[in-house]
Amino acid sequence: MERKIYWTKINKIxxxxxxxxxxLLDIPEGxxxxxxxxxxxxxxxxxxxxxxxxxLVRHMSICTLPAENSIGITTRIKEQCSEFKSILRNxxxxxxxxxxxxxxxxxxxxxxxxxxxxxxxxGLATFRPLVLTYLNQPENVKGIYSLNIHSKxxxxxxxxxxxxxxxxxxxxFVDNRNDYYEEVKKLAVDQEGLYYIVGSDExxxxxxxxxxxxxxxxxxxxxxxxxxxxxxxxxxxxxI
Length: 240
Hints:
Layout: E1 6-15, E2 20-25, E3 37-42, E4 57-61, E5 71-76, H1 83-89, E6 96-104, E7 113-120, H2 124-136, E8 141-149, E9 169-174, H3 177-187, E10 194-198, H4 201-213, E11 221-223, H5 231-238
């Protein structure tokens, strides 16, 4: 089955910090998604040869909701970066990119439990639409607690990630790992909660270790990974 490729244009570029940009894209006809979704972002030329040039394609979370009328992609671009990031950095409003394969591994679970969103750096972008969805429709979610670590203190989306006691939403930012993992241990006192984790594989594994030590089960841990990739994160625990 041939995948559908959506070509679309950049309508706005937001400089979140010196290394982080958000690209807002026009929504192509027929392109739909839900909170927690990711897509493949491809640059011009990726499909011009006999085989797709995978170096011009990246798996990206969508940080907006359809109601915001743009597809938001937030990414970190260091001074020394890949060919993909280098090309992306030089794109302007009006330039075209392609999107294909939309999927969500981390939709908002409405199970009358507290949800804890654990993220590192720009991983917070995955959680932004979950928080917006909850704030607009809090039914069957006890509350949400977001904990994000960013060593440079360039905290993202502070307009959305602002604590709101009335809506039972808490947003906390820390700038070092010691404080971060101590806070994770405190959150894990909630033995009924759901724990969503987004970040590097190393970050995910460290969080799982801390949560499991506190008695949280794999069934309570939600990762932004496809089913076939989950085993490597929980295989060491499966034998315990």
